[in-house]
Amino acid sequence: MATKKPAAPSNYCLYIELDGVTPPIWRRFWIEGSATLGKLHHTIQAVMGWGDYHLHEFQIGGVTYAEPDPENQDLGSPPVDERKAVLSKVLEGISSFGYQYDFGDSWQHSIKIEKIEAPSKYDLGCAVVEEGARACPPEDAGGAHLYQVFLEQYAKNPKHKDVREFLRWAGEDFDPERFDRHAINATLTRMASNRWGNS
Asked: Distance between CA atoms of 163 and 83, rounded to whole angstroms?
């Protein structure tokens, strides 16, 4: 009886964008196809700049994936365990999918699969950010609509009282245009060396 040949290793180039905010907040990054959706979640948190304080889920091909929550087992059909879902399997035949973070603020992200390649350029066992633009909103900022209102006020009058109040809460050094690729990649390298998100 012939054994099934294992799939060739692959790296995925993903483009992620935060919905409902303009100009767009986006990142382009590479991750191993052997990674689980659980690892992709931790990678997205680092890539975008979130703090992983809230619940999340993936929406892929009509199926919801998340980390099972024992407290919500009686609230309808549970999601598929993201920790057991491997990218190269669940993304087969998929060109785009969704990721939601913080069900209160409802930060919805759109993710596109741009390339699938054999490991060559990035084969370090960790995710790598190639490009991106603009800072992730602060945690608990109220969702895309309220953050968009802040951005528009900030562009018109950085000294507006509502802008100053937002910055006092978010941190006076918060810059909506900041994107530090090197800092993000340093975080991803530390995550890989510590095997964070691999379980």
From this structure: 40
The DSSP symbol for 71 reads G
Domains of the chain by residue range: 11-137+176-193
CA distances from 128 to 48, 181, 186, 188 (A): 12, 9, 9, 7
- 151 and 21 in contact (C-beta within 8 Å)? yes
Alpha helices in the chain, H assignment, sequence order? 37-48, 87-90, 144-156, 161-170, 181-193
Q: What CATH code would you report for 11-137+176-193?
A: 3.10.290.30
Asked if 38 and 90 count as a contact pair (C-beta separation under 8 A), the reply is no
With a threshold of 0.85, does the pTM exceed it?
Answer: yes
- Out of 54-58, 92-96, 118-122, 168-172, which region has the weakest mean confidence (pLDDT)? 118-122
Rounded mean pLDDT of 148-169? 91
- Name the residue with tokens 């060559």: 120
* 63 vs 70 pLDDT, higher one: 63
- Cβ burial of 112 (10 Å; 0-12, 13-18, 19+) is middle
